[in-house]
């Protein structure tokens, strides 16, 4: 049974009103009086006196604005200037803050059509050693929506460590852009960029981690279930960068993990060790098995990914043989929770999940893909500016 969060009774607020409540009410009263005075001037056909604004409206609005800012920023943790390489580096409250920012941007920009451009004058360099659809499009459109300028660099434009050392590239690019998002083969390239550069570095994917994808997955599950705490996610597939990032983030959000991988394709030992310590620290369960049915038993979410990642093409025949029995089907879902849903980061091959599941009502792959945009926008915005959410905080 999933845990529910207790709420503070209304009576508790009555006993302890906010300490600045009366000051805010007085400010509201001043604004109201000033507006009424202006309306009287207008009704009499007289010109509006600028002094009314200076003496009444502006000071009152300034007080309200300051109090609103302080209220919204209470509990806010600034992430400006930091790198985003792995969820291991971020606390539960910081991850929740990023997810809240993503939900806030989605509600305001998509939901109400608000024009919100806090990144005007900012630019993001996008280094892609690997081809990409979702990561590139989500980042380019997302930065543009926020008023920034994305600058895409393909392997033909920049060769990290080939024509120029990673160290030199990091220093040069830091003088041109305000942030770098890199999609690389070796995770050490990201670490070198972070060490040598002077602007925030964002992991767009490495062979070790893909944290942006997990943020999108978590936002999708939050939207669907209404809360993350107490959910059980079953991973059925390769011990790759996606599940590594799940292992770094899930315990901090109260999510249990059951991981099924074929023998010889398990998660990296060092990642597994760190993740098990996180699960113990945050009181969640993490379970490893070589039996997909065992992992899916009682799970709320079934997740899989490609069996053959970029750079593993020569292993294709061996991998297809090793992953027999790992296809996600409704038959496999029979042992899952009644409300189980399916996630896949895409692109998808039919051997990984059959059409009956992939195109069913249980599949959340399309909102999951769209949420890549809102979560990468939230990450980039959080690293460049302090953002105040205007929508209610989700019940994580």
From TrEMBL:
Entry keyword Ligase: no
Domain called Aspartate/ornithine carbamoyltransferase carbamoyl-P binding: residue spans: 82-222
Pfam families tied to this protein: OTCace, OTCace_N
Recorded metabolic or biological pathway in which this protein acts: Nitrogen metabolism; urea cycle; L-citrulline from L-ornithine and carbamoyl phosphate: step 1/1
Keywords noted in UniProt: Amino-acid biosynthesis, Arginine biosynthesis, Transferase
Gene Ontology biological-process entries: citrulline biosynthetic process; L-arginine biosynthetic process via ornithine; urea cycle
Cross-referenced PROSITE patterns: CARBAMOYLTRANSFERASE (PS00097)
EC number: 2.1.3.3
InterPro entries associated with the record: Asp/Orn_carbamoyltranf_P-bd, Asp/Orn_carbamoylTrfase, Asp/Orn_carbamoylTrfase_sf, Asp_carbamoyltransf_Asp/Orn-bd, Orn/put_carbamltrans
Domain Aspartate/ornithine carbamoyltransferase Asp/Orn-binding: 230-382
GO CC list: mitochondrion
Gene3D superfamilies: Aspartate/ornithine carbamoyltransferase
SUPFAM superfamilies referenced in this protein's UniProt entry, alphabetically: Aspartate/ornithine carbamoyltransferase
One GO molecular-function entry: ornithine carbamoyltransferase activity
PANTHER family: ORNITHINE CARBAMOYLTRANSFERASE, MITOCHONDRIAL, ORNITHINE TRANSCARBAMYLASE, MITOCHONDRIAL
Quaternary data: Homotrimer.
Family named by the database record: Belongs to the aspartate/ornithine carbamoyltransferase superfamily. OTCase family.
Name the UniProt record assigns to this protein: ornithine carbamoyltransferase
Organism: Branchiostoma lanceolatum
Taxonomic path: Eukaryota, Metazoa, Chordata, Cephalochordata, Leptocardii
Gene it is expressed from: OTC
